[in-house]
Specification:
CATH topology of the largest domain: Extracellular Endonuclease, Chain A
Oligomer: single chain
Radius of gyration: 30 Å
Strand content: 35-45%
Distance between the termini: 124 Å
Helix content: 10-25%
CATH superfamily of the largest domain: Extracellular Endonuclease, subunit A
Strand order of the largest sheet: 1-8-7-5-2-3-4
Number of domains: 3
Number of strands: 30
Amino acid sequence: MIYEIIIIPRHKIRRIIYSIIALLTVYSCQKPESKIQQAAIQFTPTIVGQINTKATGTTWDNNDQIGVYMLKSGQPLGPTSILAQTDNRLFTYNGSVFQSNAPIFLPNESVDFIAYYPYKTLTDFQYPIDLSDQSNPAALDLMYANNAKNIDKSNNTIPLSFVRQLSKISINLSITNTAALEANQITVKLPAISTQGGLDLTSGKLTVNSTDKKDVQGKVTVNANKTALIEFILLPGEDISGKAIKFLASNGDSYTWTVPQNQNLQHLAAGNRYSFDIKIDNGKPSGGIGDSQAYLEIPKMNSLSNDEVFIQHFMPDASDKRNYAMLYDKKLKMAYWVAYPLYSSILGSGNRTEAWGYDPQVSTAFQPLLMNAQGFSKYGYDRGHQLPSADRNLNTSQNKTTFYFTNMTAQASRLNQGVWRLLEEKVRTWSAQCDTMYIVTGAIPTTSSDTMLDFAQDNDGKDVAVPKYYFKALAMKKGSEYYTIAYKMNNEIPPSGVTFENYRLTVSDLEKATGFTFFPDLNNTQKGNINTSIWK
């Protein structure tokens, strides 16, 4: 065999080596660069709604799982719109974000995202709901997110806003003179409840099978102080008004408590939580609690118009404690009343936030925009708090809730900063001298002699009703006794030299003027008299 030897000049060998090195350098740099430029999709989640099945209510736990769909922007969810095989893709919560085990990347086009919690294997984008087993409320806490629109490759961390789809009943139960709670064997049942339904992820519409009803057993969590928390997760629209909840203790005692006849309990709202305090003494009710309202301060509501909505806020940093409730008119963009408890341990100082913003429980379309005072001020009005900022000044998170626009009305500046402010300060003084002060602050846009509505404009120039007068109804609890008083002031500059005492009247008289029934648990004698030794 003959071999041919080819001799390559040295300068050509160098040129070949340099070319190979350059090619290898370009190849090695280009491949990782595409990975660096494109990070995997992850989600930062928030929760809307007051169901609060988790420890803090609006936070996530590690290993929580959501299902995610990525689809072509502007197209409805369906087999042809889903991109990059992100068809009910599992994402798991890890510290602060939801991430997928197998990375998913944003494509070279705008996309939308739809997500839900908790994760399930689904068929035809339909999420089945079965509330028969209430032993794990978190597993029933259905949430839906459809806010991530027109997402491009500029940011791989995508915010998702999860809206709670179901309703919740919470019962704070105390039992005395029995071993039932010590044995952790109390059973609580709610009768004839719809348990089957579904959520269509393509439309976000929830349906209820109202023909199939059954008794459900609540989740019971016993506390160290011989109290218990009972939870029921229910389908929205459920009517629990007048239903008989049955308690069976381990010693065989049974007790039936009837849910109050209340308008807002006849059609439970999605994302809302409804709470009750019940006491059982030797297997029997105490204080006639079975006929009472959910909370003493909430006025009686018989029927609401299509424009009226009942709203209840719980403390942002203590979701088992109520903050305030209100009857809000979406058309007039103001609350008729705001009801709340006040006691010394909830008061603080130095935490006013000026955190003006929308109420998360009402569509922004039905709220005034009041980021600054320019809208109301040209009419001589302030953005008057119904729940005063100083009544929720223990910390900044609580104080922020007083700056929701739903809590504001167009209040005459000289009234708001004068005699009305002095009354608010006096109420805080009184609250330090009693167990609890129950307060209803209200604003009424018409009177029997003046039915014409007046309006001011918000920052967007939208009409907001101007109250004709304001009121406060107070019920002071000292020991086992209740004492009441009320005040009513026209929304105008007060005459010179008057004090809030010039506007005093009984709660019964205020009921006649407003048409509202305040403190429904109290009798006419308690509401028809003013004890001057108490209200000094």
